[in-house]
Amino acid sequence: MSPVTVALVDAQPLFLLGEGRLFEKNNAFRVVATGTTVAQAKAIAARFRPNLLILDSDHEGDMPSTILAIHAASRATKVVAVTAMPNIDAAVRAFEAGASGYALKSSTPEEFIAAAETVLRGGTYINPTFAAQVVGALRAAALRKVAGQTTQLSVREHQIVRLLLQGRTTNQEIADSLSISVKTVKHYMTLLMQKLRARNRLEVVMAVQKIDGFQSGHTHQPVRYN
Fold it and tell me: Which domains does the chain have, with CATH numbers?
């Protein structure tokens, strides 16, 4: 079986040397290229298309964009980001960009090899010392994304919400303002309550105020809900 091809990119020459020796000692791996800059990482991915690229995530610049560029150059290349200091937000951004692993530079040689083997098998590797925090942050980010998707309002729904915020609370008032039927207003109110997981109009107003675009720049009239 042919060795797994590995590329190493790190701004610290001494760490890069240690990484290279670690993988060269293991017959399962073959180091095909090394580099010290983000530009070199992209060029290495395009030229060598390694099975695995271990990338210094402490580089200056936009690391998610670098990971995306690596995958654009070589879709099959797995990326493991390494860092001197754990940063939960940076880890989340790296995974969202397509990284398969996030490890500490202080990891033991055995942990480094385990990280490589895990991602090459199709798994995800997160250093155990902060794995729970990263997983929690990824879940929270996913929930925020889903929430943003589920609260996308149509043009008509926006119009009705605006009127609610202006104090026009009855179906007839809304229908008259928009020149539509009361039945149509009821239909859209039902859709709004479903989208916003609201049980009544007051909860619709409370929920919609948390959506981008309704949080500022609007003067709300006092509203009574019977």
Answer: 4-145 (3.40.50.2300), 151-208 (1.10.10.10)
C-alpha 103/C-alpha 110 separation (Å) is 12
For the sheet containing 125-126, what is the strand order?
Answer: 29-35, 4-9, 52-56, 78-83, 101-104, 125-126
CB atoms within 10 A of CB 29: 20
The distance of Cα 58 from the centroid of its chain, to the nearest Å, equals: 18
Q: How confident is the model at residue 61 (pLDDT cuts 50, 70, 90)?
A: low
Residues β-bridged to residue 33: 7
CA angle 7, 83, 79 (to 5 degrees): 35
The residues near 226 (Cβ < 8 Å, ≥ 6 apart) are none
Q: What are phi and psi of 27, to 5 degrees?
A: -65, -15
pLDDT band at 100, cuts 50/70/90? very high
Contacts of 107 (CB under 8 A, 6+ apart): 115, 127
pLDDT reading at 125 higher than 70: yes
Q: How far apart are CA 23 and CA 9, in angstroms?
A: 13
Convert the pLDDT of each residue in 106-119 to its tens digit: 999 999 999 999 99
